[in-house]
Design brief:
The longest helix is centred in the N-terminal third of the chain and has 25 residues, at 81-105. The chain folds into 3 domains: 4-148 and 275-343, FAD/NAD(P)-binding domain (3-Layer(bba) Sandwich), CATH 3.50.50.60; 161-272, FAD/NAD(P)-binding domain, CATH 3.50.50; 347-460, 2-Layer Sandwich (Enolase-like, domain 1). The termini are far apart. Strands 1, 2, 3, 4, 5, 6 and 17 form a 7-stranded mixed beta sheet that branches. A 5-stranded parallel beta sheet has the order 8-15-9-10-11. A 5-stranded antiparallel beta sheet has the order 18-19-22-21-20, with helices on both faces. It is built from 14 helices and 22 strands. 32% of the residues lie in helices and 25% in strands. Helix 3 (48-67) runs antiparallel to helix 4 (81-105). The model has no long low-confidence stretch (mean pLDDT 97). It has helices at residues 14-25, 41-46, 48-67, 81-105, 164-167, 184-195, 215-227, 283-286, 322-336, 365-370, 386-390, 419-431, 436-440, 450-460, and strands spanning 4-10, 30-34, 108-112, 114-119, 122-126, 132-142, 146-148, 161-162, 176-180, 199-203, 231-233, 236-243, 248-254, 261-265, 267-270, 274-276, 309-311, 350-352, 357-362, 375-381, 397-403, 409-416. The protein is of the alpha/beta class. It binds flavin-adenine dinucleotide and 1,4-dihydronicotinamide adenine dinucleotide (NAI). The site of flavin-adenine dinucleotide has 37 residues, from helix 1, strand 2, helix 2, helix 3 and strand 4.
Length: 467
């Protein structure tokens, strides 16, 4: 085994493993170090993949129990939670093994252990048994990702007081679930347990759910989740939690201060964001600069202030999304190989995999207003889409925002069935610098949900036809 590489990646998540694979494809010798014991990072092990497996399974369970009747199907359903968890674990196992296969295919060495930079170009890897190995690399890529942001004064035990990691592994359905934070994790995992039978209360510090998402979409989302049985306490903060003989007593108070009250619950999910993870990495030793939020500072070529050290993914600025990490991984590998790697941050979609899904790309109306950009809006509701009617999923709408003068597409926001897939064509449109008219004049198959995107695009110039 060689101990010297062209490039070594620390972290085996979407940022790390994709960088290593691309380096291998480009003919460079590469290694990827991860301390977790299985590759794939947060995303494959405890994030995107297990949560989506549970979202899918719980949605089918809910559909079979409550929605099939609308289609004339009578079904008696029963939950087998251990089997649902086993299916989720199987998917995780297959995909993490898949990363090892891709490493072999691209001649990447996968190293299990904790990596620490001891000097520029030098990394010490500590294995679980305490043994160490020193490797050298012309380039080092930091891709150490992120970790759960703690709630001050609250200790996560992953049984009663859980982060997302505990919430995807509960062994029984809690009667009551209190979610702290109405962000992506809170609403996705809240949906899983709501569908499986929990009473879900969401406590959110701000006066709205999903901050950062287009406000009109956020309001519709909260209304729809409310109909599904979610209870929201907005502008509220958790100030303490006490373990009782059975359950938890959670103290809350208005965000702006005021009278305290207590919410009794069985399980509490802390989902107030994630923080960059760079602990024990040796960054102080080599002098890699971090910003105020602990993120590794890089330039547009992912270079840190120390020559030969780069960073990608959740540990640097930008949305904490697997596909953003993956795009940066490809770009940094190409840059290291002497090519012109680049990421277009205006064309990074974001999807919340609830039902209905929420999908966004580009600018929100609030952002355009704040920037003083003149824009036009085209909207189309799924109630007027033929396919949505046939599948009895008519809640939600598509909204397209385009520049008032040039008609260039600036943003798209969808709440509705398959929103995550629907937004993809607008991501491509933005990537190509397309106009709303380009989408409106593109043939879309009938009857599909994609027609709602086309009709919304027609709406920008005021010629929506099917409403
Ligand atoms: P990570 O995936 O966090 O990988 C970093 C890896 O580095 C980890 O495995 C860690 O063990 C390892 N590491 C850290 N320090 C060291 C060290 N010193 N030595 C060796 N190894 C080290 N994003 C989406 O786009 N879509 C989704 O549907 C989605 N769902 C999510 C659901 C949940 C519950 C969570 C928590 C996150 C979800 N995300 C989703 C976010 C996504 O998981 C992250 O954006 C993505 O994993 C970031 O990739 P990364 O490579 O930067 O870091
Ligand atoms: P988030 O940033 O999406 O939401 C956190 C929420 O908690 C916000 O609404 C915030 O206002 C609120 N909050 C913060 N402090 C609070 C407090 N003390 N009390 C009450 N509310 C408080 O973070 P979340 O949901 O933890 O997810 C972390 C990240 O993981 C996301 O930002 C996203 O990047 C990624 N992710 C992506 C998914 C996807 O793409 N489908 C799925 C899950 C996670």
């Amino acid at each position: 085994m060689a101990d010297s590489f062209d490039a070594v990646v620390i972290g085996g998540g979407p940022g790390g493993y994709n960088a290593a694979i691309r380096l291998g494809q480009l003919g460079l010798t590469a290694a990827c170090i991860d301390k977790r014991g299985s590759f794939g990072g947060t995303c494959l092990n405890v994030g995107c993949i297990p949560s989506k497996a549970l979202l899918h399974a719980s949605e089918r369970f809910h559909e079979a129990g409550s929605e099939f009747a609308k289609l004339g199907i009578k079904a008696k359903v029963e939950l087998d939670l251990p089997a649902m968890m086993a299916q989720k674990n199987k998917v995780v196992g297959e995909l993490t093994k898949g990363v090892e296969f891709l490493f072999r295919k691209n001649k990447v060495e996968g190293i299990v252990g904790e990596g620490r930079i001891t000097a520029p170009g030098k990394i010490e890897v500590k294995a679980a048994d305490g043994s160490t190995r020193t490797i050298t690399a012309k380039s080092i890529i930091i891709a150490t990702g992120s970790d759960v942001a703690p709630l001050p004064g609250v200790t996560i035990d992953e049984k009663q007081i859980v982060s997302s990691t505990g919430a995807i592994a509960l062994t029984s359905v809690p009667k009551r679930l209190l979610v702290v934070g109405a962000g992506v994790i809170g609403l996705e995992l809240g949906s899983v347990w709501r569908r499986l039978g929990s009473e879900v209360t969401v406590v959110e510090f701000l006066d709205r759910v999903t901050p950062g998402v287009d406000l009109e979409i956020g309001k519709a989302f909260q209304r729809i989740l409310g109909k599904q049985g979610f209870t929201f306490q907005l502008s509220t903060k958790v100030t303490g939690v006490e373990k009782k003989k059975s359950g938890l007593a959670v103290t809350v108070e208005p965000a702006a201060g005021g009278d305290k009250s207590v919410i009794e619950t069985d399980v509490m999910l802390v989902a107030i964001g994630r923080r960059p993870y760079t602990d024990n990495l040796g960054l102080e030793t080599v002098g890699v600069a971090l910003d105020k939020r602990g993120r590794v500072i890089t330039d547009h070529h992912y270079k840190t202030n120390v020559p030969g050290i780069y960073a990608v993914g959740d540990c640097r600025e930008g949305p904490m999304l697997a596909h953003k990490a993956e795009d940066e991984a490809v770009a940094v590998a190409e840059i290291i190989a002497g090519k012109a790697g680049h990421v277009n941050y205006d064309a990074i979609p974001s999807v919340i995999y609830t039902f209905p899904e929420v999908a966004t790309v580009g600018k929100t109306e609030e952002e355009l207003k704040a920037a003083g950009v003149q824009y036009k809006v085209g909207k189309f509701p799924f109630t007027a889409n033929a396919r949505a009617k046939t599948i009895a999923a008519t809640e939600g709408f598509v909204k397209i925002l385009a520049d008032a003068k040039t008609d260039k597409v600036l943003g798209c926001h969808v709440i509705g069935p398959e929103a995550g897939n629907l937004v993809a064509e607008v991501v491509l449109a933005i990537e190509f610098g397309a106009s709303s008219e380009d989408i409106a004049r593109t043939c879309h198959s009938h009857p599909t949900l994609t027609e709602a995107v086309r009709q919304a695009a027609m709406g920008v110039e005021g010629w929506t036809m099917q409403m």
